[in-house]
Specification:
Elements (H helix, E strand, L loop, with lengths): L3 H39 L5 H16 L2 H11 L9 H26 L3 H9 L4 H13 L4 H14 L11 H12 L3 H32 L1
Helix pairs in contact: 1-4, 1-7, 1-8, 1-9, 2-4, 3-4, 4-6, 4-7, 7-9, 8-9
């Protein structure tokens, strides 16, 4: 039977751990957006070795489990002198992992820009950085927003993997509460409900951003 008194007693602990979950989500997503754009630009380089190197790295990251990558960054890198905190290791791994997927979103957005835009910029003798920052990226990003939102929600739902490297996020806290009380029904259910609510709120935020960008076009 559901025990509401027990639920009320542990809810503040879950909400405190939610702050860690959200912090890891947004920091990792920001990192993935920046790295994803960098990857997309590098894959368009005229220097073939750079393209091959970046493409190979992207395929390697996509083809290996995210959990294995989390373990590698947290447990293996210290052997080479790079010891990271659980939060930093988790954020770095999530950010790099999702950047490989966002790079394809960027690629599709960039490829959607008419070739005439590039040709006009070349005729006007704009610098490469000016073309990217002032012409291409501002036009390419708005159509990407719904897809970015999907990846943001997916990243949120992958944060429980970080409990494997001792970062006590939302679901990790729920499991600890369940183990301490021998009651898993309430904490695990409430953690699931919180994830559901947060996913819904993020989807609303993405819809609002998408609407605003479309109105400004």
């Amino acid at each position: 039977m559901w025990d509401w008194n027990f639920t009320v007693s542990f809810l503040p602990k879950l909400l405190k751990s939610l702050q860690i979950t959200l912090s890891a989500t947004f920091v990792a997503f920001l990192l993935s957006c920046l790295l994803g754009l960098l990857i997309a630009v590098l894959k368009r380089s005229k220097i073939k070795p750079i393209v091959w190197l970046v493409s190979g790295g992207v395929e390697f990251i996509r083809s290996t489990p995210l959990l294995a990558q989390v373990f590698f960054v947290f447990y293996v890198l210290p052997k080479f002198g790079l010891a990271l905190s659980p939060f930093l290791a988790g954020v770095l791994t999530l950010g790099v992992h999702y950047s490989t997927y966002l790079s394809e979103v960027y690629r599709a957005g960039i490829d959607s820009i008419p070739k005439g835009q590039w040709e006009a910029a070349s005729v006007l003798n704009f610098s490469r950085s000016h073309v990217w920052l002032k012409i291409i990226i501002p036009q390419a990003i708005p159509p990407m927003i719904p897809v970015f939102g999907n990846y943001l929600i997916a990243l949120l739902k992958d944060t429980p993997l970080l409990s494997a490297i001792t970062l006590i996020e939302l679901l990790g806290r729920a499991k600890i509460i369940g183990a301490d009380s021998f009651r898993y029904l309430e904490p695990i259910t409430m953690a699931g409900v919180i994830f559901l609510v947060m996913s819904y709120l993020l989807s609303l935020l993405v819809q609002q951003l998408n609407t605003q960008f479309n109105q400004n076009l």
